């Protein structure tokens, strides 16, 4: 597996919130993140561009990035912006997209499948609040909720990645959508 090491231009240029979790003040922050490029012709790149939805055409972006943490993602985005401020970005949750939006022929595909956290907390006002990783599927989340006697609206296919589902406003045949306002 080919890994790229990303070093910020200056010492610890991450936002303060991320800085405390990533490095000691005054040290050089460095992380290793999986970045796959077509020039490597590696099995990892071929696997990284493959989608769950076999009906989508094969597209070969300039980079496929698999961050494992918010820190890695932030460092990658800083590095990418320093290299190319206009590089298009596609965010992939599960790669399931019926409309083939989870890949691109240019730019960077940020594959969120390693973001798999799920935390459910009850706020002081009694409302339940969930923090959901973009790499989970709606089926994985529904299984956890079902075990607690709860549910969530989602489409009929449980293998849809929650990242794409939320970015694309979801799709649920049981939920009526209001008609657009007419002028």
Secondary-structure element sequence?
EHEHEHEEEEHH
Q: What are the segments in which pLDDT stays under 50 over at least 5 consecutive residues? A: 1-29
Distance between the termini: 55 Å
> What is the count of distinct domains?
2
The CATH architecture of the largest domain comes to: 2-Layer Sandwich
Question: Biggest β-sheet, characterized?
Answer: 5 strands, mixed
What's the helical proportion of residues? 10-25%
Task: Briefly note the CATH topology name of the largest domain.
Answer: Uridine Diphospho-n-acetylenolpyruvylglucosamine Reductase, domain 2
Radius of gyration: 19 Å
Approximately what portion of the residues adopt beta-strand conformation? 15-25%
Write down the overall mean pLDDT: 77
Could you list some keywords that capture this structure?
single chain; 183 residues; alpha/beta; Uridine Diphospho-n-acetylenolpyruvylglucosamine Reductase, domain 2; 2 domains; five-stranded mixed sheet; two-stranded antiparallel ribbon; globular; disordered N terminus
Blueprint (SSEs and pairs):
Elements: E1 3-6, H1 16-22, E2 31-36, H2 43-49, E3 63-66, H3 70-83, E4 89-92, E5 108-111, E6 118-122, E7 128-132, H4 138-147, H5 162-167
Parallel strand pairs: 3-5, 4-5
Antiparallel strand pairs: 1-2, 2-3, 6-7
General description of the model:
This protein is an alpha/beta fold and 183 residues long. It is 24% helix and 17% strand. It is built from 5 helices and 7 strands.
């Amino acid at each position: 597996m080919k890994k790229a090491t990303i070093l910020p231009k200056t010492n610890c240029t991450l936002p303060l919130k991320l800085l405390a979790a990533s490095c000691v003040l005054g040290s050089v922050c460095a992380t290793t993140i999986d970045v796959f490029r077509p020039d490597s012709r590696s099995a990892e790149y071929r696997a990284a561009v493959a989608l769950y939805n076999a009906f989508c055409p094969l597209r070969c972006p300039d980079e496929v990035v698999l961050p494992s943490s918010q820190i890695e993602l932030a460092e990658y985005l800083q590095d990418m912006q320093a290299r190319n401020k206009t590089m298009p970005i596609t965010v992939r949750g599960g790669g399931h997209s019926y409309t083939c939006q989870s890949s691109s022929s240019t730019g960077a595909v940020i594959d969120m499948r390693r973001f798999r956290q799920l935390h459910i907390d009850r706020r002081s006002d009694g409302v339940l609040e969930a923090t959901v990783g973009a790499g989970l599927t709606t089926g994985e989340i529904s299984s956890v909720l079902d075990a607690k006697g709860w549910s969530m609206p989602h489409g009929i296919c449980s293998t849809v990645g929650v990242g794409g589902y939320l970015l694309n406003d979801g799709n649920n045949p049981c939920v009526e959508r209001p008609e657009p306002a007419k002028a």
